[in-house]
Amino acid sequence: MLLEVLVLGLVLSADSFSAALAMGSRPFTKNDALKFALSSGGAELIATLVGFLAGSHIISMISSIDHWIAFGLLAAVAIHMAMEGIEGLRHPHKEAEEVDFHSFTKVLIVSFATSLDAFGVGVTLGVANKPIIPFLASIGLWAFVATLVGLYLAKRLSDKMGPIFTLVAAAILGFLSIQMLKI
């Protein structure tokens, strides 16, 4: 289970990493980086918890098909992430041009926009009746770290690394969705 917890947290951090790569192309201070990382990690954690609470309440009604629901949700998240990665490869400068790093309100918006996938995963965890605390810790911590790494790597890496990382993460999440059918 530890590997599942760590991998899921890492996979969900792809959007945080990609957003940080885009935002890192603008000037930022250490304080800005910390605020963004806390916002990103917190948003991922909150979205996962809300999804989990929603998912755990419906488990008794759908226990005979819960593995199909988990598969569908994870597959949808994987497809969404793959589409984001492909769009990022097609238009590598589009996201960076649209983000204004100077506003904390915009940092919060980006943080919550990139955490929508975590909501779907949270529902899946609730439906699968998984212990939520380890997943929350992993997801929040990975998003925090990925945001910091993304910001600081943005100055050194090309814009294509964010979309490639998102595509790899989508493939891993797709694999995890298929694993749900074997439960």
TrEMBL record:
Lineage, broadest ranks: Bacteria, Pseudomonadati, Bdellovibrionota, Bdellovibrionia, Bdellovibrionales
Protein name, entry field: Manganese efflux pump MntP family protein
The entry's keywords: Cell membrane, Membrane, Transmembrane, Transmembrane helix
Residue stretches spanning the membrane: 6-24, 36-62, 68-86, 107-126, 132-154, 161-181
Source organism of the structure: Bdellovibrio svalbardensis
SUPFAM superfamilies: Multidrug efflux transporter AcrB transmembrane domain
Annotated signal peptide: none
UniProt xrefs under Pfam families: Mntp
